[in-house]
Write a structure and sequence with these properties.
Helix content is 30%, strand content 23%. The chain is of the alpha/beta class and 558 residues long. The strands form 4 sheets. It has an 8-stranded parallel β-sheet with strand order 10-17-18-20-21-22-23-24. A 6-stranded mixed β-sheet has the order 1-2-7-6-3-8, covered by helices on one side. Strands 5-4-9-25-26-27 form a 6-stranded mixed β-sheet, with helices on one face. Helix 2 crosses helix 7, helix 12 packs parallel to helix 13 and helix 14 crosses helix 17.
Length: 558
């Protein structure tokens, strides 16, 4: 295959003529499509920007001036994008589809500003609940409460004395429960803290109702499991919502066998609107059965893959579960929790030998350092030269570990929106000295680390434009703080967009298929009503996806 501009027009060859880049191997006219009247950022090394894209059989066939694309593609349906900006399909490199679908049906506590407000919302739900029904909610955050302290079970007991209540914290790493829920799970005064978890207790030694990380499991195990129909509805609702935000692919950070089975059925039936790159969750009871057949990539026209295994090494900063080298400044004596480090140490080399990728949740600096040591050792033991292991979140690193990621070829799968959400309280946790090493995306990039951006939805909404805004400005929607939070870590618009496209494709071993608008690439494209490379970054907060295309198929159109 010749390089652009180096060969005459002929079968299976790319040709650059003025602004036209085409492949003449178009095939039949079935499924041909031209996106016209657009500003198309190809993200090629030449920074080529054109006005039209020609598509056939799910692939990009030509990009360039509209007249040239028409000539190259032949008879085709044309879509007038009315001046929209087209970029390579935007990808969320870390989200949770089933969880988002579930939470969209749960009690939303994100706006509550006190424990009493939460209790009032729970009490209102009691009125329509069946006797003894579990009441489940999400997204409370004590950092938004007026006193900033963790709540206890007393007000939930008053609001729902006859119903077990389980309310997940915004980060998913802690839960607030009432006495009925603790009783159902067999948790009481004499219950020990499990490995990787904490049962918070009052001065008398009684559980307060706050459970951190692994301590949540006994209660979670009592929650009613969804039916297959409910699970399917959750996954469809979540993937359709992602398509509406302009996402063409999602890296689902932790699936079990049931979720994979449903995803596989939906993909086989052609009902998945976006590509899903699933990570098998190591903590799932069905894990060994799920990975039994080995990695599965490119299924159903590339709509579904399972290549990565997700490990949870520590918790989160918000619930003081992230594993740190030094104490939390606002809780002396507490350095966080190590959750699945033993499983990672035991299984890493075995999984690499079988062709799996390792994706490791590590938020604290201690967790990141320990995880990196295991990943480096496992790659040597397995003899894998390019494992492309991933560090999920990487919110706090030691100085020496920024370069260490790059040298080990470990991808930093990070979420800029977390920095915006956390910046109002994180200094209380870490203190000013450690803050210089927190949410340091530019330091990672300049060290040579590949960045892949996501949102960790449903903790944040799966809106890639908010991701871009956060990375570029490091400010919230109210323009706080002035100049940006630690502005030296801001990225350029081009760098941020690259992490949502090429970086995410590289993290999935798909840089040869996705992440650029070029002939031969899969026709995954996002059309926006703002230009992320040229507009004022504040316009990104008001921007919307106008069209989402996956494999040449329009899956969302505004």
């Amino acid at each position: 295959m010749g390089a652009p501009g180096t060969c005459s027009r002929g079968p299976h060859c790319f040709f650059l003529k003025g602004e036209l880049l085409e492949s003449s191997a178009v095939g039949s006219s079935a499924g041909r499509l031209i996106l016209a009247n657009a500003r198309v950022h190809t993200l090629l090394p030449s920074n080529l920007t054109v006005e039209a894209v020609g598509i056939g059989e799910g692939r990009i066939r030509a990009v360039g001036a509209l007249s040239d694309v028409r000539a190259a593609v032949g008879p085709a349906r044309e879509v007038d994008l009315v001046g929209s900006t087209v970029v390579p399909g935007l990808v969320d490199a870390h989200g949770h589809l089933a969880m988002m679908g579930e939470r969209m049906r749960q009690l939303d506590l994100s706006a509550a500003r006190s424990p009493e407000e939460v209790a009032a919302l729970v009490a209102a739900r009691v009125a329509g609940a069946a006797a003894g029904e579990w009441l489940v909610g999400r997204a409370w955050d004590q950092n938004r409460f007026e006193n900033g302290g963790l709540p206890d079970r007393a007000c939930l007991d008053r609001a729902a004395p006859d119903h077990p209540v389980f309310l997940e914290r915004v980060d998913g790493h802690a839960a607030w429960t009432n006495s009925r829920a603790l009783e159902a799970a067999g948790l009481g005064r004499d219950s020990p803290d499990p490995p990787g978890g904490r049962i918070l207790r009052d001065s008398a030694g009684e559980p307060t109702g706050i459970l951190v990380d692994a301590a949540m499991k006994p209660v979670v195990d009592r929650l009613p499991a969804p039916t297959d129909e409910e699970l399917e509805a959750r996954l469809l609702t979540a993937t359709e919502r992602c398509a509406g935000f302009g996402l063409t692919a999602v890296h689902d950070a932790g699936v079990d066998l049931r979720s994979w089975t449903v995803l596989e059925r939906l993909a086989r039936q052609g009902r998945l609107p976006v590509r899903v790159r699933a990570m098998a969750w190591r903590g799932a009871a069905s894990f060994e059965e799920l990975i039994g057949p080995g990695p599965r990539t490119g299924l159903f026209g590339g709509m579904l893959s399972l290549r990565a295994v997700k490990f949870l090494v520590d918790g989160a900063l918000g619930s003081r579960g992230a594993a740190l080298f030094e104490d939390y400044c606002d809780e002396p004596g507490q350095t966080g929790l190590l959750v699945e480090l033993g499983l990672l140490e035991r299984d890493a080399a075995r999984l690499l030998r079988r062709g799996f990728q390792l994706a490791v949740h590590a938020i604290g600096d201690r967790a990141a350092a320990l995880a990196l040591a295991v990943l480096e050792r496992a790659a040597r033991e397995a003899g894998v030269r390019e494992p492309r292991s991933r560090l999920e979140h990487a919110q706090l690193l030691r100085d020496e570990d920024f370069g260490r990621l790059a040298r080990a070829g470990v991808i930093a799968s990070v979420q800029p929106v977390h920095q915006v959400a956390d910046m109002s309280w994180v200094e209380r946790r870490l203190g000013p000295e450690r803050l210089a090493r927190a949410y340091a995306w530019r330091s990672l990039l300049e060290a040579g680390t590949c960045l892949a951006f996501g949102t960790d939805f449903p903790i944040e909404e799966p809106n890639p434009l908010r991701t871009l805004h956060a990375a570029i400005t490091r400010q919230d929607a109210h323009r706080r703080p002035a100049g940006g939070w630690r502005p030296e870590q801001r990225l350029t618009a081009a760098e941020a967009l690259d992490a949502c496209t090429r970086g995410a494709a590289f993290a999935a071993f798909e840089e040869g298929q996705l992440g650029r608008v070029a002939p031969g690439m899969r026709a995954d494209l996002t059309a926006l009503d703002v230009d992320p490379l040229a507009c004022d970054p504040w316009r990104l907060l008001e921007g919307r996806a106008m069209l989402t295309m996956v494999g040449g198929r329009i899956v969302f159109e505004r």
